[in-house]
UniProtKB/TrEMBL annotation:
It comes from Vogesella facilis. PANTHER family: CENP-V_GFA DOMAIN-CONTAINING PROTEIN (PTHR33337:SF3), GFA DOMAIN-CONTAINING PROTEIN (PTHR33337). Residues 4-122 form the CENP-V/GFA domain. InterPro entries: CENP-V/GFA, Mss4-like_sf. Belongs to the Gfa family. It comes from the Bacteria. Pfam families: GFA. Keywords: Lyase, Metal-binding, Zinc. This is GFA family protein.
């Protein structure tokens, strides 16, 4: 069980989450590029998690995916920082936006997805698995995280 603290950019919202880190991956889809306002987004999945808001309240909106699933996206109502996502189809997982963590020094994605949408100027590591789109099954990403060296898993 890992305990992680984080918060939004303006500092009005603080959270603590505990759970088993199940995966950390980078996503290069256009949606992640848009919501991160960068070349890619990252997702840190925690299994069997417990989330506590230490300060402030999150706002949320429901994103309907092209595959027909619904993801609740939580963000700071003051500064708009994305903090975490919860896919209603997988209630045992919470997806944290890992850049919102207080300690990001240990973050090393175990895989990259939607590499077909990756920015052409961004070299992807050759020693990390990559998928051209969304995986049909995330089991391979979970296994890649488990196979990552301990130094990459926090």
């Amino acid at each position: 069980m890992q305990v992680l603290d984080g918060g939004c950019q303006c500092g009005q919202l603080r959270y603590r989450v505990s759970g088993r880190v199940a995966a950390l991956f980078a996503c290069h889809c256009r949606d992640c590029q848009r919501h991160s306002a960068s070349a890619f987004g990252m997702a840190l999945w925690l299994r069997d998690y417990q989330l506590t808001l230490l300060q402030g309240r999150s706002a949320q909106w429901a994103r309907h995916t092209p595959g027909g699933k619904v993801t609740d996206c939580h963000f700071c109502p003051q500064c708009g920082s994305r903090l975490f996502h919860h896919n209603r189809a997988t209630p045992q997982f919470l997806s944290i936006k890992p850049g919102s963590l207080d300690d990001t020094s240990w973050l090393r994605p175990a895989a990259h997805i939607w590499t077909d949408s990756a920015q052409p100027w961004l070299p992807l590591p050759v020693d990390v698995p990559g998928l051209p789109g969304n995986p049909d099954d995330f089991a391979a990403l979970l296994a890649a995280w488990q196979a990552a060296p301990d130094a990459c898993r926090g």
